[in-house]
């Protein structure tokens, strides 16, 4: 049974930083591209970032480029999302995903999803 468990969400102020982490189990972690999506209140689910199986490639959504950074540890089976210079529009539930393909940029391309962690950025 595949499990993706996110942690690190919370309430921060605009300009602050936050680091999300996702712990994966039940899958051969290094065989999957890992990523993050988010869904804000009243918004569509949005691609945030993805990283290929051995970290050779990364990709980012336009709205987070230059502010967010994704990384993974294939020994610990974790994927992190470092979020800097947070803005109120970054407020969303953030989901960790695993995909057996690359690139990953759309929700339908992810095979596994976590339950999500709430990030709230106050102005």
Blueprint of the fold:
Layout: E1 3-7, E2 10-13, E3 18-25, E4 33-39, E5 46-51, E6 58-60, E7 68-73, E8 78-83, E9 92-99, E10 112-113, E11 117-122
Parallel strand pairs: 2-11
Antiparallel strand pairs: 1-3, 3-8, 4-5, 4-9, 5-6, 7-8, 9-10, 9-11
Radius of gyration computed on alpha carbons: 13 Å
Category by helix and strand content: mainly beta
Number of strands: 11
Shape: globular
Order of helices and strands: EEEEEEEEEEE
What's the number of helices? Answer: 0
Low-confidence stretches: none
| Helicity level | under 10%
Strand content: over 45%
Task: Provide the residue-averaged pLDDT.
Answer: 96
* Ends apart, CA distance between termini: 40 Å
Largest sheet at a glance? 7 strands, mixed
Description:
β7 (68-73) and β8 form a beta hairpin. The protein is 0% helix and 50% strand. The protein is built from no helices and eleven strands. Strands 2, 4, 5, 6, 9, 10 and 11 form a seven-stranded mixed sheet that branches. It has a four-stranded antiparallel sheet with strand order 1-3-8-7, with no helix packed on it. With 123 residues, the protein is mainly beta. The chain is globular. The protein has strands at 3-7, 10-13, 18-25, 33-39, 46-51, 58-60, 68-73, 78-83, 92-99, 112-113, 117-122. The mean pLDDT is 96.
